[in-house]
Amino acid sequence: MASDSLSSLPITRLKGVGPAAAEKLAKLGLHSLEDLLFHLPFRYEDRTRITPIGSLRPETGVVIEGEVMAADVVFGRRRSLLCKVADGTGMVTLRFYHFSAAQKNNLERGRTIRVYGEPRPGAAGLEFYHPEYQVEYQAGNGLPPLEKALTPVYPTTEGVSQKTLRNLAGQALQYLQAHPPEELIPAALLDQGGLPSLTDALSKLHNPRPEDPVNLLLDGKHPAVQRLVMEEMVAHQLGMLQKRAGQKAFCAPQLHGETLFARLQASLPFALTGAQQRVIAELQADMARPHPMLRLVQGDVGSGKTLVAAAAALAAIESGYQVALMAPTELLAEQHRDNFQHWLSPLGIPVHWLAGSLGSKARRETHVALADGSARIVVGTHALFQDAVQFQQLGLTIIDEQHRFGVQQRLALREKGRFDTAAGMQVPHQLVLTATPIPRTLAMSVYGDLDTSVIDEMPPGRKPIDTLVLPEGRRPQVIERINDACRQGTQAYWVCTLIEDSEELQAQAAEATYSELQAALPDLTLELVHGRLKAQDKAQRMARFARGDAQLLVATTVIEVGVDVPNATLMVMENAERLGLAQLHQLRGRVGRGGEQSYCLLLYKSPLSLTGKKRLAVMRDTTDGFVIAEEDLKLRGPGEWLGTRQTGDLAFRIADLMRDEALMEPARAVADGILADYPGLVEPLLRRWLKGGQHYADI
Ligand code: ADP
Ligand code: MG
After folding, report:
1. Distance CA 449, CA 237 (A)
2. pLDDT < 70 stretches in the chain
3. Residues having CB within 6 Å of any atom of ligand 1
4. How far apart are CA 406 and CA 334, in angstroms?
5. Ligand nearest to the CA of 332
6. Angle between helices 259-267 and 305-318 (to 10 degrees)
7. Are 159 and 170 in contact (CB under 8 A)?
8. 138 CA to centre of own chain
9. Bridge pairing between strands 62-75 and 112-117
10. Beta-carbon neighbour count of residue 633 at 10 Å?
């Protein structure tokens, strides 16, 4: 049998499935034999052995077998049918509230009955409420043999009974065993801890033996599950590799110029870190190729990503192409604009600006300059990919904090540089920066189609931030500490973290804290920023703080990214327990940017949940963004970690990213092996596992 025969055999080929049943099964996503086989039980019932009535305890799922002693309709609070069953070790009652006359008659005294259900304490000792049961047809006829395998319980929907699903799965299994399909993971590649064949794995999962370790099956730790997980992960890896190959099939301008960046570097008051040099070399090599770069640069807060981006931008500009740098917030975009202006104006390259707050005249001017090519680099926000924006020759897009953008938005920007050439479709090179370290597990599964560079070294002289976790009651001492620190010439942040979505409420809370702190710190000058301020107002206030005209900045989490004031060495975060680790880490990164020792004080409201305690302890114990990201992933799970925008990317059917992390790398190796030696298996694997299309972060 060909490997795809299972998926091409419609469910209607099975006995008992007509059009009406097929329609209901389709609601469960079950169309083919293959669908049925991969529709796995979520628990099992043990109907392989009989429990003596005398030793029944209230528990889940047991089989008893005995003789019907009596079946009577009683009229108590509710009319019910009570059936007494005895087996020589004891007697137990079956209770039915819904029943028919035929049912009562069938429970004839003296017949043997087998009951499956959950005994519970009732009026007459232990009782079974509405259990499943079988009665022998005639006294003395006997019942069929007990089940030999555990009974699977499947996820189902209205109108599809467990009995139907068991029956169909049974038929599909019989077919599978009679026509074992070609293995989509060749045995030669599958020497991972003795994983079974697909046929054996599926047989085990649908019909485990009573002696099998059911817990392992249900927890996904049994080799039978791991076999499927492995195959699914391999398929995902292949999907991503294929997609990457598709990307690389586009053309891109070959951008190689290193003179401008060399000049910038010579003007810097510091030397590049080794990590910065390595990553810049990777970018330059990528961009010199005639195919588009697609590279994610990860670097912890303060690792110096901006300069790395500048190196890429200068290579493009030197080669006669334009550059667009997009950031998710105006504050962050401004910070980039200012940095780039500082670095590029001495080279005679003006930096253009495009953001929502820009007046219509200035905006039109930028549009014209981008279209006629007089603008070589533009920095901005979402305003960059609007329809009215056209480039003369866009060669490189740089996106900061990609996870805050949708895929479509990034692609919309890329489209601005797309055109037909004699050699084929040309698109710009793409560089994505992120300070939110992506745990390896996620990076491999979600961003597997991206090249990744990591800036894993901080500029020298930075001292790790000292973090303290304090109860809210220590507020007066904390305020005193701010006073002392600021009077010695440093600056501080006070972050108000109201988790409400409403900017209005956040702003109000920040206003209130601001007034309170102003009263408590009469010798200091305070500034306040929150999301409700006009961009210009916000910028002015930030600038005053950055210049040192104010010592304490009271802010909402709007300062999360982009703010760079090296003189600030103290940060207080209120209600720190409400924030995720990644966000706390980002916020904390606003201090520790100069040569002085910095401190972060995390105030929490008691009582703290266990997870809350753990989270804050992680923050206290490490400043390593990768460790924090891994812990965050463990504590919150991948969906929440990535935010709603990308959770769809993680829709594995059987694999579980956290549970199956250890299989990720072996799966990648198997995927590489398949591409190299068994290319014919790629299509069937993708068809089996990714039939709904691919849902990767389309970077
Ligand atoms: P991030 O990676 O968080 O975006 P930035 O690019 O904003 O970091 O850099 C943080 C600060 O470190 C900036 O003030 C920048 O000028 C400075 N910086 C960057 N590279 C170096 C270096 N190699 N040595 C010293 N300081 C550096
Ligand atoms: Mg940055």
Report:
1. 8
2. 1-4, 191-193, 402-407, 437-449, 498-501, 560-562, 636-651, 691-699
3. 270, 272-273, 276, 299, 301-307, 435, 459, 564, 593
4. 21
5. 2
6. 140
7. no
8. 59
9. antiparallel
10. 23
Distance (Å, rounded) from C-alpha 619 to C-alpha 25? Answer: 49
Closest by CA to 472, choosing from 620, 609, 603, is 603
Distance 680 CA to ligand 1 centre (A): 48
Tokens of 404: 């805050």
Tokens found for residue 252 = 């891109």
* Residue 123 dihedral angles phi and psi, to the nearest 5°: -60, -35
* Tens of pLDDT, residues 663-684: 888 898 899 999 999 999 999 9
- Look up residue 177 and give its two tokens: 């065993």
Between the CA of 327 and the centroid of ligand 1 the distance, in Å, is 17
Task: Map residue 417 onto helix, strand or coil.
Answer: coil
- Packing angle, helices 625-636 and 610-621, rounded to 10: 170
Dist. CA 343 → ligand 1 center (Å): 13
CA of 565 from ligand 2 middle (Å) equals: 13
Give, for 166, the enclosing helix (H) or strand (E).
helix 162-178
* Residues 373 and 401: beta-carbon distance below 8 Å: no
Phi, psi for residue 325 in degrees, rounded to 5: -115, 120
pTM of the model: 0.69
CB 243 within 8 A of CB 311: no
By most ligand atoms within 8 Å of CB, the mutation choice from 298, 300, 303, 458 for ligand 1 is: 303
Atom of ligand 1 nearest to the CA of 461: 25
Ligand 1: atom nearest CA of 306 is 6
pLDDT at site 502? 72
**133 CB contacts (<8 Å, ≥6 apart)?**
94, 113, 114, 115, 116, 117
- Residue 670 CB-density burial (10 A; 0-12 exposed, 13-18 middle, 19+ buried): buried
Alpha carbons 651 and 659: distance in angstroms, whole number: 14
What tokens appear for 122 in the block? Answer: 């009732």
Q: Are 106 and 82 in contact (CB under 8 A)?
A: no
Nearest of 253, 209, 204, 244 to residue 224 by alpha carbon: 204
Atom 15, ligand 1: which residue's CA is nearest?
A: 304
The confidence score (pLDDT) of residue 437 equals: 65
Q: Which of 365, 351, 289 is nearest to 314 (CA)?
A: 351
3-state secondary structure of 143: coil
Whole-angstrom CA distances from 240 to 105, 450, 693 are 63, 9, 12
Cα separation of 297 and 432, whole Å?
Answer: 6
Q: Name the token pair of 379.
A: 């920095």
Report the helix count and the strand count for the chain, using DSSP H and E: 25, 24
Residue 247, SS3 per DSSP: helix
Atom nearest to 308 CA in ligand 1: 6
Atom 4, ligand 1: which residue's CA is nearest? Answer: 305
* DSSP-assigned letters across all residues of 582-594: HHHHHHHTTSS-S
